[in-house]
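For anyone still unconvinced, we reproduce a single protein record, the chain in one-letter code, the fold tokenised, and leave readers to judge:
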Amino acid sequence: MRKKHVFMNVLIMIVLMALTFNLHAQAGRGRGRVRGTVKDRAGKPIEGVQITAEFLESKVLFNDKSDNKGNWAIGGMGSGNFLFVAMKDGYEPTHHNMVVSQMGRNALVEFVLKKVQTVAEDVPLIDDEAASSLLQEGNELFAAGLFSGALAIFEEFALKNPSVYQVYINIGNCYKEMKQYDEAFASFQKVLEKVQEEKGSYEGDESAARALASAGETSLKQGDFDKAAEYLKQAQGSLPDDETLAFRIGEIYFKQGDTDNGILYYKLASEINADWGPPYRQLGYAYLNKGEYQLALDNFKKFLEVAPDAPQAAAVKALLPSIENLIKK
């Protein structure tokens, strides 16, 4: 009987070890399902948006694309913290963190994508109606994803209007979307050299900040996060009161897993503009990742206070009871 008892104990241990190994191998995978939508700022659905869900503990990836109604769905997910990213050429990428559950229905994830800005905000006023029409034509082609056509228009504009050097930001953005990165950087550099020549410094110059920010986004497309952060830091330094630049630097660090630096720049963005919701939302997720639940709760509540109608508000609100329970424990 003793031998049988020992045999059973050994058998149970083997089974448990096998189960443990299997659970580890399948980390991030399971029966969870998340649905969502992608729309533009006018509320129109966007088709063909790449949706990626990354399980933050093991970096397991799940993918889908939005259909012609802007709908998408990802299944086979385990329980835990996931980073969802929505990307499409011609739009600024955006992301959303949420805790996925295999039990019950998960909150709907609603992405709202903003079209890429193609013109620096401090481009001089153009009195020539033909030149203005040419620039507008290029912008419309870019917004439609017709980057080679937009490039031809912007280059024609640059030849006819050499004093409006800011158009090289547009030209560089076209090259960036066409994955001709060397040409993109060369275009942004033309803007920076002109600013340096005219003002002797990038400080306070909108054109320099936009060129540096676009160079940072180009580095991101190449997968060079360190270089991207360097460019965006320069952009933020030239326009220290621009909360969007500080926020974008925070995004780079957070996506790399450098939560502390992400928090630093999210907080800076919230200090520059206390009424803007995204920094508080991301601070909530960053503190949640660090296990600082009270700070996570405080920032999520602040996000809901300043942005109650934001697309991510429902998902954030659904998180609050779980965080409150973690604090009680």
About this structure: The mean pLDDT is 82. The chain has three domains: 25-113, 119-240, 250-329. The CA atoms of residues 284 and 300 lie 5 Å apart. The radius of gyration is 24 Å.
